[in-house]
Amino acid sequence: MKVMKTRMAWLKFWPGRHRGVRVGVVAAAVAACVLGAPPAAMASGADFYKGCRNSDVSCQDGVRVTGTIGPFNRCGTAGSSVGSTEVCIRYDGDVVYVKDGAADGHSAIAEITTAKGVPYRYCRNPYGHGTWAKCDFNWPEKAWKEFSGGRILDYNNGHVLYLGGFNNN
Questions:
Q1: Using alpha carbons only, how large is the chain's radius of gyration in Å?
Q2: How do residues 49-62 score in pLDDT, each as one tens digit?
Q3: pTM here?
Q4: How far is Cα of residue 123 from the mean position of the Cα atoms in its chain?
Q5: Which residues constitute the signal peptide according to the record (predicted)?
Q6: Which residue intervals of 13-164 are DSSP H helices?
Q7: DSSP-assigned beta bridge partners for residue 161
Q8: I need a surface site. Which of 76, 80, 146, 166 has the fewest CB within 10 A?
Q9: Residue 35 confidence (pLDDT)
């Protein structure tokens, strides 16, 4: 409140302090705050990593799934140094499954990279140890893709290990 009072006092002694000028300055300040805020889609649950804000990245919080979730075309498990994360790919539907393999308090993550379309796709499993999450992506069918698994440590840091590659799906 003190800052607001100081700014209002400055407007009071501003030369040409007509009401319309003050309203215009206040309106411009409010517009700058609103336009400077991140879009609602960016502020959703899919903003779990700083890279998610880039236009060449697609981030999803996976949907929790239980029971039989196969068949898979490709699977790989990252080592214990990155949370024993298991990542499985299902070609039909461009689906990624992520299993959190460690009770370490960090979310498991899958990273899919490709040279065509959106180059980076992340699927996060925020549901905890032993759970599976599913993400639906739309990637180029004939492009080479690589997948990695790991965990998100915090908003600025994650660690993934390469698990494999695939194409012609």
A1: 23
A2: 999 999 999 999 99
A3: 0.72
A4: 8
A5: 1-43
A6: 19-36
A7: 149
A8: 80
A9: 42
Dist CA 23 CA 18 (whole Å): 9
Structure tokens at 11: 């407007």
The first and second tokens of residue 117, run together, are 């379309």
Residues 85 and 76: beta-carbon distance below 8 Å? no
Residue ranges covered by each domain of the chain: 2-36, 50-166
Closest C-alpha among 125, 130, 113, 134 to residue 152: 125
Residue 13 carries which side chain, given as an amino acid letter? F
131: phi then psi, degrees, rounded to nearest 5: -100, 160
CATH 2.60.40 fits 50-166, yes or no: yes
Q: How far, in Å, are 47, 69, 112, 124 from residue 88 at the CA level?
A: 23, 10, 11, 13
Structure token pair of residue 2: 């003190």
Angle, alpha carbons 160-79-68 (nearest 5°): 90
Compute the CA torsion angle 102, 103, 104, 109 (nearest 10 deg).
Answer: 50
Tokens of 46: 């899919």
Read off the amino acid at residue 139: W
